[in-house]
Amino acid sequence: MTTNDAVADRLEEFADRLEALEVEYKPRAYRRAAENVRTHPESVDALAREGTDAVGEIDRVGDAIAAKIVEFVETGAIDELEDLRDELPADIVALTRVEGVGPKTVGQLYDALGIETLDDLDAAAEAGEIQTVDGFGPTSEANIAAGIETARRASERERLDRARPRAEAIREYLAVHEDSDEVSLAGSIRRWKPTVGDVDVLVASGSGAAIVEAFTDWPEADRTIEAGDQKAAIESGGVRIDLRVVAPGEFGAATQYFTGSRDHNVDLRQRAIDRDWKLNEFGLFDVPGVEDDDQRAGERIAGEHEAAIYDALDLPPIEPELREGRGEIAAAADGELPDLIDAGDLRGDLHVHTDASDGDATIEEMARAAAERGLDYLGIADHAAGPGIVGGVGLSDDELRAHRDRIRELDDTVDIRLLAGVEANIAPDGTIGIDDDLLASLDVVVASPHHDLSGPGTDRLVAAAEHPHVDVIGHPTGAYRLGREGLGLDLDRLGQVAAEHDTALEVNANPRRLDLGGRAVRTVLEAGAQIVVNTDAHRPSALDLVRYGVHTARRGWAEADDVLNAQSVETVLDA
Ligand code: DGT
Ligand code: CA
Ligand code: CA
Ligand code: ZN
Q1: Cβ of 571: how many Cβ atoms within 10 Å?
Q2: Centre of ligand 2 from the C-alpha of residue 188, in Å
Q3: Residues 362-419: tens digit of each pLDDT
Q4: Domain finish residue from 287, 312, 333
Q5: Protein residue with least CA distance to atom 19, ligand 1
Q6: Do 269 and 236 share a structural domain?
Q7: Which ligand is nearest to the CA of 256?
Q8: Which of 54, 157, 311, 378 has the most neighbouring CB atoms within 10 Å?
Q9: How far is it, in rounded angstroms, from Cα 89 to Cα 444?
Q10: 238 within a domain of the structure (yes/no)
Q11: How far apart are CA 320 and CA 188, in angstroms?
């Protein structure tokens, strides 16, 4: 079976390769089709088997792209893409991971220097060849050289949204196996880290061989990396999945141990040692001392259930998102763990786009989708024109006035409260370049940095947070996961200013961003600020990505009270 991700990856590669060849318009069409395929709620494979018409029902997928999707599902390849690969044999996926290297750069560097791989790029930068190419200089060469290490590391990890659906699919698949008693995810995927090295999955079973066999036979597995009696690893869609089969009586201990993090486990093990006990992946044992040849020696205090291990150590259960060794065990011991925000606590979204700027859907379509998902209110925050926003995409002040009026007109016709807003651009000097009276007339103003996204950014964002009409700072650092680093921020200071001025700091739920991240959330909350979990959705299906934002907020110890859009619309409008 071909996954939606796999189809989307091909379409994105298509877009990149067309762009590298400097083809106009088409790359954008492929990219948008890819985004819609990736988040499409139904299996695109199943649609493809019905034919091109069924595939063409997906938003932004026209006849030509639909035919390519069907070709891919049926044959495993797309002829035209193979031709493009022959024309430009560079590893475009790996090379574009280097910050500042886009598809066009890949095309130029291939034409001039024959660069195909990261190693080629590294060697060319080392030899000073890149600066000799037209359009490049010593500075761009140095920037490329500086980005290569990060790009190499990025290729060893996966973004959470690429791994999580696969992790959930293998979990469900193993859960229905007749020999499995229980299944749990473990490791960073269970802690909802924004990027993961691999997916860890544990199964409680007395029949390791049967589980391992089913695991390696999973239809979505691309290859088996290793397979033993109780352990195996496969690769699926570029993601490594590690399986461990454990005895049912030890499942809780194994789940605790392999969920980590290492730092959390060190703190927890210390608590066991303080009681003259021993904690390891097999259980919690009444045996003094840390080292023992027989890891199962001593009387077993707990091991079957994870919660019982914490309980025996006089602790309440600790949510996986908190297990980073950042004081959660001390907080748990003192009864001071946060009551974490849940997806169900969210009542609105203050940052979505429509086709008035670069979204794919109308105001009504976004409103309907948000209402279907149970939200009470929706902030339409289309892009204002400005630096960092592609020409023609952002709204001028006059267009924004008309858009605002249109949103208010439609508000009476939809089953959700619409808020008229904007996503303004924060310039490097902290100004946002929209008429003040116009800003004052809007229900919600999101201001975000969209260009010049490196170096220190605190003063820039502080100025925006102090602006009387700004309600939300969107994706504050501007970082991309496994992409660019974004602005350097003094989050304590930004949090204090945001608190003083009632400006909420966004956790942008788009998995490419997850900005602010968990650690940053914790810092700004401690400084007294509120956060807001927004999807920044550009199409209805992207509203479902909100869970990544919620779990990121949870990694930052956020409670419902800390989150602006967990409050009523009246509270939001007062802010
Ligand atoms: P990742 O996969 O790099 O995103 O991060 P994790 O946390 O999933 O790390 P991974 O897959 O290497 O191991 C899963 C968990 O198992 C890890 O969080 C803690 C635990 N663990 C694995 N090996 C060791 C070890 O040698 N010592 C300790 N203390 N814990 C370990
Ligand atoms: Ca892992
Ligand atoms: Ca692992
Ligand atoms: Zn946005």
Answers
A1: 12
A2: 5
A3: 999 999 999 999 999 999 999 999 878 877 789 999 999 999 999 999 999 999 999 9
A4: 333
A5: 260
A6: no
A7: 1
A8: 378
A9: 47
A10: yes
A11: 9
